[in-house]
Amino acid sequence: MNQATNLWNALAQVVDYPAPTLRPALVALIQACSPVLPEAATGFQQFCDELDHSGFARFEELYTEGFDFDAASSPYIGYHLFGEDPKRSHFMAGLKGRCLELGLDVGAELPDHVAAVLRLMAVVPESEEAEELLVDCLVPAVEKMRAGLEGKNNPYRGLLHAVSVVLEEEAKSASTRRDVSCRPFSLSSSPTSR
């Protein structure tokens, strides 16, 4: 497994509903980010410290409070890109089809859940498809999720900031690897891809 795959899978684990893989994923992100993205590493460390202090069950509650009760911080990328517009359905159908094509099980979640899209990134890292998902979908949606938690005493706000730092750095790296001046229509159908 390569470094990019590990990064995307670790990010998916930390933004998904808390599972036993949460703490190991945080530790992996802290170690990976410390030398190159200290701001992100600090955010992941603070989240990990709070998890250790408050306990796993409390973080299940915080996840539900943060993401399930307020559309502004919804974990569904398509919602942040398209709202209730029918384009979201097209976006989700494209994501689901692509996941099925690649043999990626998104489980019970909708295919536009941020964790599901990050897992898709792990399967297609460093491709034009990944760059488009990253730049046009993940970066703006995660920023909107983070803004939706602004002013709330929820540690997921800090976690999303750390995730945003990583995503923005990866987006910069992707743009230097490849000059994509005009993206063709694709599965994202995002407002910036047309």
Please give a quick description of this structure.
By secondary structure, the chain is mainly α. It has helices spanning 3-15, 22-33, 38-54, 56-67, 77-82, 87-102, 114-123, 128-148, 155-177.
Overview of this protein structure:
This protein is mostly helical and 194 residues long. The protein has nine helices and no strands. Helix 1 (3-15) crosses helix 2 and helix 3 packs antiparallel against helix 9. The longest helix is centred in the last third of the chain and has 23 residues, at 155-177. The termini are far apart. Residues 179-194 have low confidence and may be disordered.
The secondary-structure class comes to: mainly alpha
Mean pLDDT over all positions: 88
CA-based gyration radius: 16 Å
User: Quaternary state, please?
Assistant: single chain
Q: Percentage of helical residues?
A: 55-70%
Globular, elongated, flat, extended or rod-shaped: what is the shape? globular
How many β-strands, per DSSP? Answer: 0
Biggest sheet architecture? none
Bin the strand percentage.
under 5%
Query: Which parts are unreliable, with pLDDT below 50 for 5 consecutive residues or more?
Result: 179-194
Number of helices: 9
Give the N-terminus to C-terminus distance in angstroms: 33 Å
Question: What is the helix/strand order?
Answer: HHHHHHHHH
